[in-house]
Amino acid sequence: MKVFARMEFVALSTPVLIAIGLIVFGAATVKGVAGLGFPLITVPLVANIVGPHAAVVIIAVPTVASNLFMVAHGGGTVARLRQLAWLIVGLVAGAAVSARLLRDINPAALGLILGVIAVSYAGAELVRVPLRLPASPRPALSLGVGAAAGLLGGSTTIYAPLVAAYVDSLRLAKNEFVFWVTALFLIGTTIQVLTYLQAGIYRGGLLGIALLLCLPMLVGTWLGIRMRDRLSPDRFRTLVLVLVLLSGLNLIVRTLWR
User: Is pLDDT above 60 for 195?
Assistant: First the structure.
């Protein structure tokens, strides 16, 4: 707990807040275009500015708002919800446990985890190595994948690799895929934020900063949705992945050389 207390509250200067706001705006624009990627971009980049603990805590709230904004457009069915029920149970349990343990994770270890996730995900996508999990109605497998995603996401806000890989295995249409991936992110991040609140992690003005960042997130998401049909999806995605890769490498180097 002493580790987390050191992060509690470094006051953020105006230039730092502006820099974080611009990162959130840019990542939200990406999410508006592609349907995902918000925490994968924001968390490593913001961690390079304010440290991994503060980055995870600050970005969790606009991530919830972003997912809620996207889910509000609809696209799911009750039948699909039943198919994903055990995955959701595991996700909720894993996120609640992992979020409660955040304050006990060493900052260097958390920074390294974030960097490795960013580099692994972006690298695999850039060389087009598909990450696909076997989608199965068997409760044990769905529960295990959900729990693993929740444990990873609750302490990093990054649920995408496992959740997107599992949902992709269901071979859904594009709009349904975006809806359910976003809905699962929303469930995980909501549990994460509620756990942080209950544990008293949002102190020293962090909650206010997190809520303030919802504004550039909403503007960026709206802009991204409007830009969706005007950009080359492949070129845009490549640029984003390169950015994620570089931010992850920078985070790893900074963590190992401290």
Answer: yes
Query: How is 117-175 classified by DSSP, letter by letter?
Result: HHHHHHHHHHTT--------S-HHHHHHHHHHHHHHHHHHS--HHHHHHHHHTT---HH
Report the C-alpha dihedral over residues 72, 77, 80, 82, rounded to 10 degrees: 100
> What are φ and ψ of residue 105, in 5° steps?
-85, 130
pLDDT band at residue 70 under the 50/70/90 scheme: confident
Q: Number of helices and strands (H, E) in the chain?
A: 13, 0
Q: In whole angstroms, what is the distance from residue 40 CA to residue 114 CA?
A: 9
Give the residue-averaged pLDDT of 48-74: 90
Q: Where are the domains of the chain?
A: 12-256
> Helix, strand or coil for residue 35?
coil
Buried b (16+ CB within 10 A) or exposed e, 45-63: bbbbebbbbbbbbbbbbbb
